[in-house]
Amino acid sequence: MKIIFDAVSTMTSKNQTTIPESVRKALGLEKQDKIRFSVLGGGQVLLEKKQY
């Protein structure tokens, strides 16, 4: 998989994180959108905007 760019986010004490603005823009994410997290081998995570 080719990496277009990297972004970093910190997990809070409540196990929450903010998706960086650059990622939100790249995926076209808006408020109330659903996001799919797919855990891949080697500790990688795929994040996708859920399509309806």
UniProtKB/TrEMBL annotation:
SUPFAM superfamilies: AbrB/MazE/MraZ-like (SSF89447). Transmembrane segments: none annotated. One of its GO terms (biological process) is regulation of cell growth. Residues 9-52 form the SpoVT-AbrB domain. InterPro entries: PrlF_antitoxin (IPR031848), SpoVT-AbrB_dom (IPR007159), SpoVT-AbrB_sf (IPR037914). GO terms for molecular function: DNA binding; DNA-binding transcription factor activity; toxin sequestering activity. It comes from the Bacteria. This is SpoVT-AbrB domain-containing protein. It comes from Neisseria gonorrhoeae 3502. The lineage of its organism: Bacteria, Pseudomonadati, Pseudomonadota, Betaproteobacteria, Neisseriales.
